[in-house]
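Page 37, continued from 36.
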């Protein structure tokens, strides 16, 4: 299984990667620091596609929302579940992101246990 994490916060990326390994050490994590890097990776047909994408919403440059729109435009990428996670708790925003194709909208975890449970939850769900 391959999970892609798109997050500009280095500490959050490190926490996520550690928690993911606790869930299942066989998971491969691809981590990018911004949405442009993620799109470059995803659009390169030589790269393996992730099974899930965790996408931070608030990033400098290209936002998570804009990245989501780009992912859902691509036939090759549109079926990958994108889980948007952010510090926002805006219900209108979460509804808009679901309309744009996000599989789920989650409040960004702060503690390692919360990240572990978030990843466990996502891997345990059927997203088809």
């Amino acid at each position: 299984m391959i999970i892609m994490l798109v997050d500009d916060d280095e500490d959050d990326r490190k926490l996520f990667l550690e928690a993911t390994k606790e869930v299942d050490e066989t998971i491969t994590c691809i981590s990018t620091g911004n949405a442009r890097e993620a799109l470059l990776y995803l659009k390169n047909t030589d790269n393996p596609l992730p099974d899930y994408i965790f996408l931070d919403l608030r990033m400098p440059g290209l936002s998570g929302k804009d990245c989501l729109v780009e992912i859902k435009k691509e036939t090759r990428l549109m079926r990958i579940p994108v889980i948007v996670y952010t510090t926002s708790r805006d219900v209108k925003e979460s509804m808009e992101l679901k309309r744009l194709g996000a599989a789920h909208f989650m409040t960004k975890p702060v503690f390692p246990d919360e990240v572990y449970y978030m990843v466990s939850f996502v891997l345990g769900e059927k997203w088809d």
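The CA atoms of residues 5 and 31 lie 5 Å apart. Flag for discussion at group meeting. The beta strands are 2-6, 28-32, 52-56, 82-86, 104-107.
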